[in-house]
Amino acid sequence: MAEAAAATTIDRRGFIKNGAVALAGATLAAAPAALWADVTAGRIPRWRGFNLQGRFPAPGKPSPGPAYDEFDFEAMAEWGFDFARLPLNYWWWGDRHDWSIVREEPLREIDRAVDLGRQYGIHVNLNFHRCPGYCINGRELEPADLFTGTAAQRARAQDAAVRHWQAFARRYKGIPNRRLSFDLVNEPPKMRSYEGYLEERYVEIVKALVAAIREVDPERLIFADGINIGQAPVMGIADLGLVQSTRGYLPKAVSHYTATWVPKDEFESFAVPTWPMKDDRGEVWDKNRLRREYIDPYAPLVRKGVQVHVGEWGVFNRTPHGVALAWMEDSLSLWKEAGWGFSLWNLRGQFGVLDSGREDLAYEDYKGHKLDRKMLELLRRY
């Protein structure tokens, strides 16, 4: 089962598998010079783009071809986008039973993606979607839990995560921040106590990983996901010089309607979604509610000069298309007002603008793919 999970893709909390299309050759899309100047954690462009889910075989299995398609970078650049977040699974280059292993061949595929970003003027954000000891999905498949294991297990997993991030830091040292950044741990878990969500353990992990990366590459631009599955700000790391990555999936009743991988207690309603909507408690969800959920909690961080980016967001393809677009526009307008960039969960696939499998719209042909033109143009406007 572990080998199959490493070789294939999984749901939104994993990677939704897309068909392979490789198109060679393109014209370099040059971004304005001012966009790339002086990129630091305190000053980033309003990067906008998509998550790209790569195709990596299990160890010992034949490769199905390049892990990342040049087509995706070409399309993003053609449409004016400049950010690609790559959710990575350490099983691809490592071994969940021996955390000392770092294989060279799979890393060359990531090198290629970083270089495609250079060619097309697209910033590449490398995210450990599964790191040693933790993943938001299939967490129990790890031999030791990074967050809630025994003290010895936590230390073992943290040491392994440090080792793997330092391998990346050495490999990509010297690539400027305008082209490349690291995103440490995807969607830390909910950890409840009588005080609410505990962030102390996550702060420990982030500090250890940041220190390890900066020991090798002191200037590397680093993102850290929020707590509570990426949704809430982390004040305990506000002074580390990081970008904080948030999420745009509320309410789940709209963004994940009928999605089987989301726990039922995260849904506000199971009714066919509308926008605005009223949840099962009679509470109204509209643009003002989104402002309270998305923007207001981050005000203390923003006052401290911390930059915020929406690392994942989008709507599963079972939500009615018109509802999806209305909710997306309210979300996008709030993020633009706040100066936050974004990356849709996928470019091609069930949350994307290409080959989404929606049944309630007329697609346009785009180089052999089914394009959701209305969604694409909405994203481009913001």
Features:
two-stranded antiparallel sheet; TIM Barrel; 12 helices
**Major pleated sheet:** 8 strands, parallel, barrel
Architecture per CATH nomenclature, i.e. the level-2 architecture: Alpha-Beta Barrel
Q: What best-fitting shape do the alpha-carbon axes yield?
A: globular
Low-pLDDT residue spans: 1-36
CATH superfamily: Glycosidases
User: Which class of secondary structure composition applies to the elements?
Assistant: alpha/beta
Total number of helical segments?
A: 12
State the end-to-end CA separation.
41 Å
The percentage helix is 25-40%
- What is the CATH first-level class name? Alpha Beta
Radius of gyration: 20 Å
Quantity of strands, as a count: 15
Order of SSEs, N→C? HHEHEHEEHEEEHEHEHEEHHEHEEEH
Give a brief rundown of this model.
This protein has twelve helices and 15 strands.
Topology:
Elements: H1 2-7, H2 33-36, E1 48-51, H3 70-79, E2 83-89, H4 104-120, E3 123-131, E4 134-135, H5 151-172, E5 180-183, E6 192-193, E7 196-197, H6 200-216, E8 222-225, H7 227-230, E9 243-248, H8 252-255, E10 277-278, E11 284-285, H9 287-295, H10 299-303, E12 308-313, H11 321-338, E13 341-344, E14 364-366, E15 369-371, H12 373-381
Parallel strand pairs: 1-2, 1-13, 2-3, 3-5, 5-8, 8-9, 9-12, 12-13
Antiparallel strand pairs: 3-4, 6-7, 10-11, 14-15
